[in-house]
What we know:
Layout: E1 8-13, E2 17-23, E3 33-39, E4 42-47, E5 57-62, E6 86-92, E7 99-106, H1 115-121, E8 124-128, E9 134-140, E10 145-146, E11 149-150, E12 156-163, E13 171-181, H2 188-198, E14 216-217, H3 223-230, E15 235-241, H4 243-246, H5 248-252, H6 263-275, E16 280-286, H7 292-297, H8 299-302, E17 310-314, H9 322-338, E18 342-346, H10 358-372, E19 375-377, H11 379-385, H12 388-394, H13 403-417
Parallel strand pairs: 15-16, 15-17, 17-18, 18-19
Antiparallel strand pairs: 1-2, 2-3, 4-5, 5-13, 6-9, 6-13, 7-8, 7-12, 10-11, 14-19
Amino acid sequence: MRKLLACAAIMILGASAFALELNMFEDTPGVHWYSVEAKLNTVFRQVTYDCVTPETAMKLTFLEANEPDCVYTDSVVSLTKLKMSGVVFWVKGDGSNNMGVAGITPLEADKNSDLKTITKSGCTVEFPLKDKFWKRYAFKFSDFKLGEATLTGDRVKQLYFSVKRGSKTPVSYIIDKVGFTKNLKKTEEDLELGKQANSRTDIKPDPKPVVPSEFVENRPALEGFRKKLASGQEVTIVAFGDSLTAGTAVWRAKAPHPERYVFHYALKNLLADAYKNDKITVVNAGIGGEQASHGFARLDRDVLSKKPDLVIYEFGNNDGDIKEYTSNTEKICDKLDAAKIAVIIMSSTVFAGSDDKRDVYIKWQKDFAKKRGYGYMGLRDVFLARGDAFIGDYLSDDVHPSYIGHRLFAEMVYELLRP
């Protein structure tokens, strides 16, 4: 039976969570599906350039030491009937002293215990992350403690990975070849596999060079705003949009001063240093889950009342009707034009396969910015230019940028506004 991380699919589950589904036994379909739901402080990405197997591994990055919330699926399997002895997986750590966690969710531990209480209190094993090379781990079912009980491998509902509570720093590790096994002992095949995996010299390809200025347009349209910055006058910038502007993934990481990792905060510092101007005010007017229609409804309150000199406009990731989106965007921009406010249009970023229609939005956004004489930023284009292997470094899921992605956003806006 093959034991590998055969496929992974990331789905958006509303504004606050996403799920990861792993099919660990490709040739035994139907019963071996496990899913993990995690808050957005946990990042799961497929990795094609650093694997034990020729297929795909999974990188898990925990910005906060917190076990993921579990989704209890209908797929229940009795591993004792399949004569499985335990769990096996390969790990490549981050060199830290943190501990990774593997957990099993049983359908029921004993008749007198509450499942959620049991899974919170244990049902896990720990493994060190100090080794920055591939290492095989194998655990018997009896290693997974359920309070006073011991897991037998019967009626298992879920296998999940996490990080030990109490970790003080961000944790990152890669897992591959995950599954259940009849033989926990390391075989000659395993020894050779580890030797080959750790002797590779082409682990990660060189990123394609990206020049942010190649993905922004119409810098001359912002000449007036740049002159005001250069003169040392007070200027106000309003970042107006949905969860990308709000900094959803960064805020949910619960890091100290999360506002410092959102693109408009970094932009403020870049401009202040470049123009020697400390009179720059940046307003975060982003609200997660919103569409352009919501933006129009609160335009006066959240934007025009601030009397901005520049608005960075970003909607479209949540809009489902292109006609409504374009109509509301035009109405918003009519008001901004009437108030003589400079505008930068940020494109959508959605990468999910079901959102290929977002290409229509991006084309319209680019054409609209050109027609109106606005600055323009091609967010998805700059991510794609880095190469598929690096998209996961910039996005926390298929929509929201990580703190690294926000830094790239800031650099793109800066290209439009630099001296």
